Amino acid sequence: MKITIIAGARPNFMKIAPIIHAIVSIDSITKLSYRLVHTGQHYDQKMSDTFFSELNIPQPNANLGCGGGTQAEQTAAIMVAFEKELVANPTDLVIVVGDVTSTMACSIVAKKMNTKVAHVEAGIRSFDLSMPEEINRMVTDSLADYFFTTSEVANQNLRKAGVEEERIFFVGNVMIDTLLKNMSRFEKPSFFDDLNLSDKNYIIMTLHRPANVDEAGKLKTLIDEIVAHSNGLPIIFPIHPRTAKIFNELGISAPTLHTVDPLGYLHFNYLVQHAKAVITDSGGITEETTVMGVPCLTLRDNTERPETITVGTNELIGTNPANIAPALGLLFSGNWKKGGIPELWDGKAAERIVEVLKTKM
User: Fold this and answer.
1) What is the CA radius of gyration of the chain?
2) Residue 135 has pLDDT above 90, yes or no
3) Which range has the worst mean pLDDT, 26-35, 45-54, 226-235?
4) Do the domain assignments include residue 81?
5) Would you state the pLDDT for residue 28?
6) Are both 137 and 236 inside the same structural domain?
7) Is the torsion defined by CA of 354, 171, 292, 126 positive or negative?
C-alpha cells in the first residue's frame, strides 16, 4: 500500500516522526511504502527544518512551499499545490495529523480525488468556533475514512457525529511516542547556565493564540500579571513569530523576564522537564507537561485535550488576567495536583497505527 504523509507546521513533525519510524521498522513483506509531503506552512527554519534533523525524520519527498498569507490564501495555495502532487504521485491513503491548515486542506483535496484519508489525532474538540484549529478538526473529521484517536473522549465525540465504530481506532498519542523516545536526548540550551537557571526554579511561558496576543493591551496585562506573581523566579519566554511583533512594539521588560528565539524540540523540552511550571496557551504542550509531571497553567477558556486536566497536571486558567495570581498562588503553596498519565500514552501509538494499516486497510 502506498501512503502519503502530510506535514505542514511545527506540531505536525512530532506526530509524523514515530509513524515514519514505525513504517520503516516493519518487515518489508508487508509492502507499506510512504511518501512524505511537507506543505511548507511553517517556513521559518527554527519552526520547521530543525525538527527534521532533531527527530531523525528524512527530508520530505516534496515541499510545496506554501508558507505565508492569510488563512484563506494559505489554504488555497496548499490545495492547488497538493492537487498537483497527487496527480503526479497517486497514493492509496493520505495520512493527515493534528489540526493545522495543511491537515484540512490536504484532506479536502484527497477526498475530491477519490483518495482515502486517515486522520491521526481525530475526534478532539474544543467546541470553540473562534479557533481556526477547531474548524480544521471538524472539516477533516467530516471527510476522513479512518480515525486514529488519543482518548475515549475523542472516541465519544466521533460516535456522536455518526462515525461507525469500525472506523475508529483508539491507539494513543503519537506526540507522546516522540517525547518518550527522545527524553534521554534532551539538550540544555546555551543560555541555561548564562541565566543561572536551576532545576524547578524557573517558569516557561509560551503565548501565541489571537485571544491573548493580538490585542496589545491584553498581552501586556497578561505578562505583567505573570511577572508580578511569579515569586521572583526567572520567566523564559521563547517568543513565537506571531507574538514577537506586538511584544516588541510594547517595549515590555522586567528583570526576571527573558525572551529567547523559538527553540528546537530537544532544547525546549529540556526546559519544560526542569521547569517549576509552564504557562501556555498551546494544546500540545499540555500533553507533554502531563507526561513529564510538570504543572501547567493554560491561558485559555477551553481545551480540546480534557484528559490533561482530568488526569494530568494541566489546569485551565482562562484568558482573564485576574485569574493568574490565584493560580500561581496555588502553585507556590505546594498544592498543585500531582496528575497521572492518560490511557495508552505509553510510547506505542505509532506501532498500533501501523498494525492497523497492515491488517485492516
Assistant:
1) 20
2) yes
3) 45-54
4) yes
5) 65
6) no
7) positive
